[in-house]
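A note from the maintainers: we've had questions about how concatenated examples are separated. There is no special marker in the raw files; a new sequence line simply starts the next protein. For clarity in this README we add a label.
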Amino acid sequence: MKAFKDNVQKFFSLVQHYQFVDAVDKFYDENIISTDNNDEPVKGKENFKNRVSHFVGNTEMEKLEMLSSMIGDDLSAAHWHYVFTNKMYGKMDYKQISVQRWKDGKIVQENHFYNLGY
């Protein structure tokens, strides 16, 4: 469990330091399935990495704070506070819960839950 917890903490650290693409490269499985709220899931590491790269390329981060986290058997979750300006969406300030299911040291499923007030 300690090795898993250390791995998750390294993942969380990359996210906290806006190193989203590095996090994808190091911690996501080739067959990742990632879903935002009820949107269609993004399937496959390359598709997911393209989405993350597009977000990073069009976003100026102002703040990313982890409010809390949990780590269990092959499961991690974090409550984040994001503040950023995105070229498509403008300034965003919201809280998000992200849950990851892990297998063999890689994230195989991830779900993000947030309300943007639309």
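[label: protein 2]
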Amino acid sequence: MALRIFSKDNYRKVAELSSLVLMLPSSIVVGLVFGLLLDKLFKTHPWLLLTFLVLGIVSGLYSLLRGLKKFV
């Protein structure tokens, strides 16, 4: 008889947690890209970059904490 450590539910939890790992960096990158594009468009370097970088960090942390609440 084989011992099954991982069931379908465990695989689903691992998949959800691995998606949380990418949540913060992707939010930061999106904020950086928008900030750079808007800075080039409006010639306001570095103010929109910094603004959207902070918004990306805050958004990523909020999403990460909200996602982690499911597992606690």
